[in-house]
Amino acid sequence: MRLVLSQSIKGVHPKREAGPEGKRRNSGRKSSVESNKRRHNLLTVLELTNATPIKNKVGRGYECVYCVEVFLDPSDLKMHTAKDHSDDKIKYKYFKKMLYANSAKLDITSLQCTLCHLEIGGLNELYLHLNKEHNKKIYTDIKDKLLPFKFEERDVARCVICSETFASFKMLLSHMNIHYRNYICDVCETGFVTERLLKSHFRESHQRGEYKCGICAKVFSTITKKKDHEKCVHFGLKKNKCPYCPARFVNYIKKNTHISEVHNKPCIVYNCHACEKSFDAHVKLSTHIKRDHLMERKYECSECDMNFFEKDSLTEHMVKHTGEKHFACGVCYKTFGRKKTLREHMRIHNNDRRFKCEECSHAFVQKCAWRSHMKTKHNLTV
């Protein structure tokens, strides 16, 4: 059974620039054309190769897109798909379920053309092969949302494009946004495979407001931060899951210690190639590179020539110009422009003498007082 989708594309009429309503219709028509082309490419790959679609990875298993079966080993899923779901009707059913905004995850381990049985290294090589050798149409003028994965190493998720390794398939899947920058964030220029991921990123990272915790008095700038706070602080949720067992941890450090000690696995480290710093999360490395090496400063002060990497830093800086003091001490009622300054002030009331002189027995609440003491009493500059 051969399904040809390109026929529906030929019937699309040219764009009409007839005002806002016409533009909306044209935008929807363009989206429909691109979706048809993308689905045509997907169905062609499913029909003419042994590539296996993956629905999701749940726990330690990989879900079949055609049924409810879950397999610990991706190779078992590939065998199951070839044996039980080779009918084109079943493939078409999956093909119809693929949402417009979604990407398709494909296992291309030992990828082979089923027309001539040639082994092929990757999807781009496959597209050229199908077009040149078998005269099959593959559309290349669209956003590519077919994500290739190879499962050649046990317990290691390796990117087929850059060879970077990850401790889990979920982390690798997130990494693919770097290579498939179909949708770009206007604020931070981060790329994403799908529009849905971009919208989620914008809502979680850039959409600011005042979101009050439903249990305590804390207020957060994004709804995601508020929800994370409630789950972790009030409901005891441990977000950091071990990729090798069901254990969960409150932070990266405890998870990495567990992975190293219990599973005898090396912790994933993201090294900066521009300096000697390393990080336990890719997002931290990315932030470091943008802030410290690329010197990215998107947020400009309207009162002076200062620029900042984060919006929160700009907000904190603006206190210098506005003189506003919104943070009041509950003991002496003194007000401060920054929450950090209020926290430092509270050490006076709590008699928190954390700055200790190593030369004598004196200890100080404030760092400036400790430095002054070291200079005047011991002639030391610290």
TrEMBL record:
The keyword Zinc applies. It comes from the Eukaryota. Pfam families: zf-C2H2, zf-C2H2_6. Keywords: Metal-binding, Repeat, Zinc, Zinc-finger. GO terms for molecular function: zinc ion binding. Residues 1-36 are annotated as: Disordered. Gene3D superfamilies: Classic Zinc Finger. The keyword Zinc-finger applies. Signal peptide: none annotated. Residues 62-90, 183-211, 211-239, 270-298, 299-326, 327-354, 355-378 form the C2H2-type domain. InterPro entries: Znf_C2H2_sf, Znf_C2H2_type. Residues 14-24 have a biased composition (Basic and acidic residues). PANTHER family: C2H2-TYPE DOMAIN-CONTAINING PROTEIN (PTHR24379:SF121), KRAB AND ZINC FINGER DOMAIN-CONTAINING (PTHR24379). This is Zinc finger protein 26. The gene is Zfp26.
